[in-house]
From TrEMBL:
Residues 9-131 form the Tripartite ATP-independent periplasmic transporters DctQ component domain. Belongs to the TRAP transporter small permease family. This is TRAP transporter small permease protein. It is found in: Cell inner membrane. The keyword Cell inner membrane applies.
């Protein structure tokens, strides 16, 4: 994010103050933003910040909550695994394309898809293992309880 912020500031300074006509700043910002947005997916998957059904789950009895959570983990694992696998095909096609300004193979920007969704699949697997091995409800709820006890 710091590199993205620096790149955008360089673009702003270039456009309104220095007028150097730097052509690569917009393309670099686009690729950094793609990677940053997609890498947020596995970060949020770990705490169920993207894929939780918390409103529905909270109104169910505890055994059903656990079962629904495990089902969501399994579906998420399959979905993210499929996206990671499909994304590798896009990366392979991207080896034959180059970016307009950098002349960079498009496999590098497209690589964000299999990397991010592969990590999200891993996070879903870890959540599934966590849910199968414990009787606790949510990691976030456990953290809140721990803070309240202190």
């Amino acid at each position: 994010m710091a590199v993205l912020l620096l790149d955008v500031w360089i673009a702003v300074l270039d456009r309104y103050l220095l007028q150097w006509q730097i052509s690569w700043v917009e393309e670099l910002a686009r690729y950094i933003m793609i990677w940053a947005i997609l890498l947020a997916v596995p970060c949020c998957t770990a705490g169920r910040e993207h894929i939780g059904l918390s409103t529905v789950v909270q109104h169910l009895p505890a055994p059903l909550q656990r079962g629904l959570r495990i089902l969501v983990d399994l579906l998420s694992l399959l979905f993210f695994g499929y996206l990671a696998f499909s994304g590798t095909e896009l990366v392979i096609k991207g080896l034959q394309q180059v970016s307009t300004v950098f002349g960079l193979p498009m496999a590098y920007p497209y690589g964000a898809i299999p990397v991010a969704f592969g990590l999200a699949a891993l996070q879903s697997l870890l959540a599934l293992l966590r849910d199968c091995g414990t009787d606790t409800l949510e990691p976030a709820a456990d953290a809140e309880k721990a803070l309240q006890l202190q």
